[in-house]
Design brief:
5-stranded parallel sheet; single chain; alpha/beta; elongated
């Protein structure tokens, strides 16, 4: 009898032990951890993780942009951008994008781009772009104005998706066009608004300094001296945007007039703004010295009164065609007038 009781007790213990082992295959209640083993996610958590993975995989990696050549597919967030022509790089930087390579007229960047473009490759200003340099830059998108790069479109497109954009008379519309292409419309409008506020500020200060006195904008180049009217970029910037009064006798239909030294008396304004096209070139310096040594120059009102204002070369290259150049020139011209007239 005692043996049967003992045997029954042993069997009972074995049954209970086996039952415990069978139920132990799952994780115990609590924080989901036992012996360093991570708990498996429940059905709801697993579904959420799968949905997140699906959303990521379905997010668009490219977008289509309308261009002169039709719709072009580009990355949603291009990282390596090239802008052709000397103006497009400035538009890109104004929108917060530093290009990896640019075309450049001067050997050095204008001062307002020296630091941000310190790692940007210079490719020169040849009308036919340096395809080898562009390829080496490994762009994921190329932007170019139609008037500048239409003939090179096919070759550029073999390197990277190329956005050939229409020409505009006003740089603001050109900036907006690039803003749409790169999905930076808000940034473009902010750049335009900020510059308009700066223009109003500078215009008011110049009006206090100069009033109704006349101003001539003179550009000294290697082979000629050119006077700009209010009908062209630089002249329009000076006379329309900044409100500086042009000479009454300046031909209204002209845009930019090459003048000889004998014509200097025809442009006897109260103030003369002189831009040396490239002050690093000896030919430009010699041309200007030839003018200033001339007796007709010395007799001009602005010269006699000390109202000749020398302005930068490469910084003024895109004047009237870029928000960056315009902002620099506004501040530079205001400072030049304040130093002489205050």
């Amino acid at each position: 009898m005692k043996q049967n009781v003992k045997l029954g007790a042993v069997l009972l213990c074995m049954v209970l032990w086996l039952a415990a082992c069978g139920s132990g295959s799952g994780q115990p209640a609590g924080d989901g951890q036992s012996g360093g083993v991570q708990a498996e996610p429940g059905n709801g958590q697993a579904a959420s993780m799968q949905a997140a993975d699906d959303a990521t995989s379905k997010a668009p990696q490219t977008r289509k942009v309308s261009t002169v050549k039709g719709e072009i597919e580009i990355p949603v967030e291009p990282q390596r951008v090239i802008g052709l022509s000397v103006v497009y790089p400035e538009f890109l930087y104004a929108l917060g994008i530093t290009p990896v390579a640019v075309q450049n007229y001067h050997s050095e960047y204008p001062s307002y781009l020296t630091e941000p473009f310190k790692d940007t490759v210079k490719m020169g200003i040849g009308r036919t772009p340096n395809f080898e340099a562009i390829l080496a830059a490994q762009p994921d998108v190329i932007l170019a104005p139609e008037w500048w790069s239409a003939n090179d479109y096919d070759q550029l497109s073999e390197i990277a998706p190329t956005l050939l954009l229409p020409a505009h008379d006003d740089w603001r519309d050109e900036l907006r066009s690039i803003g749409v292409a790169l999905d930076r419309q808000e940034q473009a409008e902010q750049v335009i608004a900020d510059l308009a506020a700066k223009e109003a500020e500078v215009r008011g200060k110049l009006d206090e300094l100069v009033g109704d006195e006349t101003v001539v904008y003179m550009r000294v180049m290697a082979k000629e001296i050119v006077v700009h009217s209010e009908n062209i970029d630089r002249g329009s910037f000076i006379h329309k945007q900044l409100g500086l009064k042009p000479l009454d006798n300046f031909p209204k239909t002209e845009r930019a007039m090459p003048i000889s030294l004998e014509m200097l008396p025809d442009f006897d304004a109260d103030h003369i703004i002189v831009q040396l096209d490239d002050d690093s070139k000896d030919e430009v310096q010699e041309r200007f010295k030839e003018a200033t040594d001339n007796s007709l120059w010395k007799k001009m009102k602005a010269v006699r009164n000390g109202h000749v204002y020398m302005v930068g070369g490469k910084e003024y290259f895109n004047l009237g065609m870029s928000p960056l150049a315009d902002k620099f020139a506004m501040e530079d011209i205001l400072q030049a007038f304040e130093q002489r007239l205050k």
